[in-house]
Amino acid sequence: MNLERSPLREQLAGAYVLGTLRGPARRRFERAMADSASVREAVRFWEQAFAPLCALPPQKPARSLLPAIEARLGWARGEDAVRRLPWLPALGFAVVAAVSVMLWAPWTPTITPDFAVTLATEEGQVRWQFAVDKTHNWIDVKVVSTPDLTSQQDLELWLLVDGSAPKSLGLISEVDGQRQRIEARLPLSEGIGLAVSVEPPGGSPTGQATGPIIAIEKFPSA
């Protein structure tokens, strides 16, 4: 996957550093990292960003916390209850880490999309789920199951337009479970559906789909 100019570069680099990027996606990212200085720089950025969390000392919870938890769970007080809660000494650290990660994560206001679209293969295997908001001109992508790709292939999303050639909406993630928001640079109100094609690294060189269309679906109102 070519990540030189991809908006997914920072997301994948952060997931790689956190350890949540796994399996084939992690191996593809490592190959991209070996070939690209900008990808390596993105990884270094996130390593430095998360480094302070590793240096934080464990935080001792307040004395009132354990009795309060025991009372809510209906457990007897004493050593037996302490043995059942071995994670309490790390509770403070976990809270600090969670807050720190939230500060780094981009915040997106909750807006109800106009409709949802599911793209599946001809065999019926669901690959992607899309939430489309024509009013605010964005699409939320959830990767359900990525097809097998080589390091020289990327996935490109297309807007189907009635009476015209499909228009590119950019590359989409190849990481199962990944969520991605695409801010469309063209009016989604013109579209009648979505399609995904397999393209060379970085996307189609011609502005039109050059590889196989592996999934296609019309909008509900189209």
Q: Could you please describe the fold and organization of this structure?
A:
Helices cover 32% and strands 24% of the residues. The relative contact order is 0.14. The chain is globular, with a radius of gyration of 22 Å. About 10% of the residues have low confidence. The strands form two sheets. Strands 1-2-3-6 form a four-stranded antiparallel beta sheet, with no helix packed on it. Strands 5-4-7-8 form a four-stranded antiparallel beta sheet, with no helix packed on it. The protein is built from six helices and eight strands; from the N terminus they run ααααααββββββββ. The chain folds into three domains: 47 residues, no CATH class; 40 residues, no CATH class; 104 residues, Immunoglobulin-like, CATH 2.60.40. With 222 residues, the chain is α+β, with helices and mostly antiparallel strands.
Helix and strand topology:
Elements: H1 8-18, H2 23-35, H3 37-54, H4 65-73, H5 79-84, H6 91-104, E1 115-120, E2 126-133, E3 138-143, E4 154-161, E5 167-171, E6 179-183, E7 191-199, E8 213-218
Antiparallel strand pairs: 1-2, 2-3, 3-6, 4-5, 4-7, 7-8
| Unreliable residue stretches | 87-109
Q: Roughly how many Å is the radius of gyration?
A: 22 Å
Structure annotation, total helices = 6
**How many structural domains in the coordinates?**
3
> Helix/strand/pairing class, anyone?
alpha+beta
CATH topology of the largest domain: Immunoglobulin-like
- The 3D shape can be described as globular
User: In percent terms, what proportion of residues is strand?
Assistant: 15-25%
CATH architecture designation of the largest domain: Sandwich
The number of E-state strands comes to 8
Helix residue percentage:
25-40%
N-C termini distance? 33 Å
H/E series:
HHHHHHEEEEEEEE
Biggest sheet descriptor:
4 strands, antiparallel
Main CATH class of the largest domain:
Mainly Beta
